[in-house]
Amino acid sequence: MQPSNTTRSSRLVLFPLLACGLCIGGEATAEEKTTSTASLTIEAGTPAGKVSPMHYGLITEEINYCYDGGLYAELVRNRAFLDDPQKPTHWSAVQAATITLDPQQPLNESISTSLRLEVATASATAPAGVSNEGYWGIPVTPETRYHARFHAKAAAGFNGPLTVAIASEDGAVIYAKA
Fold first, then answer.
1. pLDDT at residue 34, rounded to an integer
2. How many Cβ atoms from other residues are within 10 Å of residue 69's Cβ?
3. Which residues touch 122 (CB under 8 Å, ≥6 apart)?
4. Helices then strands, each counted (H, E), the chain
5. Does pTM surpass 0.70?
6. How far apart are CA 70 and CA 38, in angstroms?
7. Cα dist. 115→3, 78, 104, 109 in Å?
8. 100 strand-pairing partners
9. pLDDT tens-digit series, residues 73-113
10. Which helix (H) or strand (E) holds 32?
11. Contact 90, 115 (CB under 8 A)
12. Which residue pairs, CB below 8 angstroms and at least 24 apart, start in 121-125?
């Protein structure tokens, strides 16, 4: 899909900067070199270098979606329907549609739940379907190609088209579709 050159929507993803510093200094004596027991002496009162006060601790934590939606560079949030086993979190129905999670129709062993979409009526002027909110929206950048892949299984007798689109939050503006 190729979005319009005049539309720009963006998001900000912050990555935490993690740092751990350990300074071990000094030359080993001849006696220390021959012994088989290792030792470590930390002279906390004698700093070996200046470390920014912004760098502290050694932890990795899912803060502000730094992994999911950040490092993964995902645009679709909760794409495997694992966030909540009871409801399709971050997904919503569009127009005359209802959505539920369906563990009876798994995609495969890894993705054991599907999103079930039931549509009463739909047309070109009043489409029905599902929408995903993304991570603080979906970033739309000019001259950028977006790739979308999904698996769909239709009820017997369905012969309508399927469309994937990046739209404004209210659905009034379609930035790209295929």
1. 59
2. 20
3. 95, 96, 97, 128, 129, 160
4. 1, 6
5. no
6. 41
7. 27, 11, 10, 15
8. 116
9. 678 889 889 899 999 999 999 888 999 999 998 999 988 99
10. helix 30-34
11. no
12. 121/96, 122/95, 122/96, 122/97, 122/160
